[in-house]
Write a structure and sequence with these properties.
By secondary structure, the chain is mostly helical. Helices cover about 80% and strands about 0% of the residues. It is found in: Membrane. It is a multi-pass membrane protein. One of its GO terms (molecular function) is metal ion binding.
């Protein structure tokens, strides 16, 4: 007996919200930690936000897995079910690794970071791929077109990938003046007209002092001349 379409749709929504939205967004959020100007308060908020998103993703994926075991025929004779089963185990392993995060500067910090990063990236990519296989299975089982959902999901993932890759280029664009609107070829501290004006202002007192000195010198010379005569 085939499961109700409502259960299939609910399973798809839970899987999309977990592995197709919350997990990629959490990765994009934690990506901002690479910024040099990230303070301690912002750092802590980003870590908490990342952890909340990932835990929500784990809970929603678990709910989708329970629904699948309860309502669907789980013969595991197709790639969607096999990948889904592997993902349900991997996301819980990833969550446990995240809670076992060592302190910065400790001995096992580097090994933990590599393991957490590699496993998280693989789980996210595999989850995105499994959503496409799920849409294909939905179309096959319900005889309904999934073209619109494929297009919307592809647009969402492309947008998240753009923000993920754009993180490294934002500071570079600011330094080049392409974001702030400044011209990188003319530094802002170089203002030649002001320097010329400053020279003219500085030269005017000296000219006045020289003219006054010449006047007094001529006056003294005339007085001495009249005294001699």
């Amino acid at each position: 007996v085939s499961p109700p379409i409502s259960d299939i749709v609910l399973h798809g929504i839970l899987s999309w919200a977990s592995m197709g939205f919350l997990m990629p967004v959490g990765i994009v959020v934690i990506r901002t930690l690479n910024k040099e100007d990230c303070g301690q308060r912002k750092l802590r908020l980003l870590i908490y936000f990342h952890a909340i998103l990932q835990m929500l993703a784990v809970l929603l994926a678990t709910a989708g897995g329970v629904l699948s075991l309860k309502s669907f025929e789980n013969s595991f004779n197709n790639s969607h079910q096999r990948i889904g089963l592997a993902l349900y185990g991997a996301i819980w392993v990833q969550a446990l690794i995240g809670f076992r995060r060592p302190k910065r500067g400790s001995k096992g910090r580097s090994a933990w970071y590599c393991c957490h990063w590699i496993l998280g990236t693989l789980v996210s990519l595999l989850g995105i791929f499994n959503i496409y296989t799920g849409l294909k299975a939905y179309q096959k089982r319900t005889a309904r077109s999934a073209g619109l959902w494929n297009f919307l999901f592809t647009a969402e993932i492309s947008l998240l990938a753009f923000f993920y890759l754009f993180q490294d280029k934002w500071e570079y664009l600011q330094k080049q003046g392409l974001v702030s609107g400044t011209d990188p070829s003319t530094p802002s501290h170089q203002v030649l007209p002001q320097r010329d004006n400053q020279k003219e202002v500085l030269m005017e007192p000296s000219r006045k002092s020289n003219s006054l000195g010449n006047y007094f010198a001529k006056t003294n010379a005339l007085r001495k001349l009249f005294q001699l005569t």
